[in-house]
Amino acid sequence: MQFTLEARSKNARAATIKTAHSTIKTPVFMPVGTIGSVKSLDAEDVLNLLGAEIILANTYHMYLRPGDKVVAKMGKLHNFTKYPKSFLTDSGGFQAFSLSDISKPMENGIEFRSHIDGSKHFFTPKKVIDIQTNLGSDIMMILDDLVALPATQERIKVSIERTTAWAQESIDYFRSQQAKGICVDQNIFAIIQGGTDKAFRKKSATELCAMDYDGFAIGGLSVGELNKEMYDTVEHTVQYMPEDKPRYLMGVGTPEDLIENIERGVDMFDCVMPTRNARNGTLFTSFGRINIKGAKFKEDTSPIDEECQCLTCKTYSRAYISHLFRSKELTYFRLATIHNLHYYLNLMREVRAAILEDKFAEFKEEFYRKRS
User: Fold this and answer.
1) What is the pLDDT of residue 131?
2) Sign of CA dihedral 181, 184, 185, 189
3) Annotated binding-site members for Zn(2+)
4) Which residues have a catalytic role annotated?
């Protein structure tokens, strides 16, 4: 991986990340393709209509179905899915958190039962690297111990100590595999934990960033805390992260969350929000959100967003999109998802242009003015 920091506008950063499969301009939002597919879209949509240079797939889900060894036999994620650009794969730590009723973090890994058939499995730091090696992702995430907020000081302390221990085991194993000629085109990121406690965040970031990782993520946020707590935690944490490596805020979030955290120095984001909201009728626009199932759109001839140049907005009216949603027509899911993801990806392109011109503050002001 090559990381080049190109410009700053105060703390906001514009950079380029080069992997074996694509050149990624940051700030970047990564569409979520949990099982190797962005819901309702195919690879051509993601490539040609959205121009995405990187998407996210999930280690836990791909391991259970179809199986990482099957993916490896099929030419790894890029050939299996026919999406030729970069993949980032999450390690499964979030699934242990979100599926806590069927999982249990332990000292040397995470035990869980499959949500598909109830079978028992155990993820260790080394095992998730082996799985992601089979998947062939460009960026793999290490196994971490994520806790819901609020949490006790003792539980957060256990989380960061466990995450640090797993991180050391992970990087030692990953580099040893590379020395054997395995996963040489892949990269690995560590995940900083610590809840909203600043002392714990400093400890976690300092310990992890001393290790030989290709990039660093901030995890364990957007899991129950207030927005201001998230922003303050990110602002505190980034000061302990390297300038010359990517900074990734996991699982965040709304357009406002992206703007606020870019301002604090974050480069990379992912979230299911644009795709999930599209399926539920909520569409993102330059002036805020709309719920397309509203009766007022029944005879509305305007596009979803007058400023948007996506396929959906250039071709169809709000009335038609509303009709598709109300009729439960499958076409709705594709058109709405294209729009929401286009909005997110285009927002990142506009932010990048503003940073390159050192006009991020002005961009942020106009972003919020439109929403008022």
Assistant:
1) 97
2) positive
3) 308, 310, 313, 339
4) 90, 270
